[in-house]
Design brief:
four-stranded mixed sheet; globular; Immunoglobulin-like; 9 strands; signal; Invasin/intimin_cell_adhesion; five-stranded antiparallel sheet; Lipoprotein; mainly beta
Length: 122
């Protein structure tokens, strides 16, 4: 009897949607994620990261590893909906900047976007 149940389960599993609930539950907070590195690829953990939504004002991104804007951060997150964003990183001394435009789209799980990977120049 157990063997029959297991065989039925194995036969039905491929017909089910491809684990979409698990994909949805793994989605991050915020509309996008940002990393900032130097030209050698090392994380710039003390960068100031901001984002500007289309038609909106500049806002500080928050550190994904803590609940604040952080001085020791490897991943930042920001945005709260679909649309286009300009993401900007500035070095702690304010002399170097990098920016990238990203687009946040609607998906079956809510919202999804590309990650921003910013490289501060030397």
């Amino acid at each position: 009897m157990r063997l029959i149940r297991a065989a039925l389960l194995l036969a039905v599993l491929p017909l089910l949607p491809a684990c979409e609930p698990m994909v949805c539950s793994a989605m991050r907070n915020g509309a996008f994620m940002v990393t900032v590195v130097d030209t050698q690829g090392n994380p710039v953990r003390d960068a100031r990261v901001t984002f500007t939504p289309d038609g909106g004002s500049e806002q500080s991104a928050w550190c994904a590893e803590s609940a604040g804007t952080g001085q020791n951060c490897e991943w930042w997150t920001g945005g709260d909906g679909t649309g286009n964003y300009l993401v900007r990183a500035t070095s702690a001394d304010g002399t170097r900047t990098a920016q990238q435009s990203i687009s946040v789209k609607e998906t079956s799980c809510g919202i999804d976007s590309e990650n921003a990977h910013l490289t501060l120049p030397d």
